[in-house]
Amino acid sequence: MAYLAKEERRKAIILATLEVVKEKGFAGITTRAVAKQLGAATGILHHHFKSLTDLKCEALRYLSQKNGDNCISIAKDLTPTQALLRLISFNATSEEKAETTIWISAADEATRDPELARVYAEEANKSHQWLCSNLREGVKTGEYALTLPVELAAWKLMSLAFNLYDVSNLPETELTPDMAVQILKEELKSTLGLDSKDLASQLLSSH
Prior knowledge:
mainly alpha
């Protein structure tokens, strides 16, 4: 492997780890598999990360930061409603679908790894904070009429949207994206007061 500065090498290891997770899941991560993906000796991983759990946690933090930066970038040029619909859109890119599999795998691995569970919860809290900010801004601009306190509405919407997305993308599921969108549309109407006839089409629209 070519010479890289310390932080660049750590990033390269994390990116290699995420590629392994896409294929094998967090439960399938080994130092050998990551090193092979990286094209380096296993010793380099031990030099930069104190344990395999440490590497898993840093990989999840990196992905969460990437997703968070994307949310901020999206929200900058859109109304609260447009930013929200873009975030929970069911017309994900191939990269976003791959990242979804990583989050699903992380949730599964978190049931067996307390440290990863702690990091998973921390990153979920950050997503919740972003959504709370979006809801407050939407109330301020008159776009939303919440029927629940902001914090509860955000958790409810996060839980429903992300679980619908996960299940509707399973290979053998009978829950189609169209059905999931209809469920989410009703939730947006009842909890946020959104009642646009274009909601479904916006949730399925291209980015």
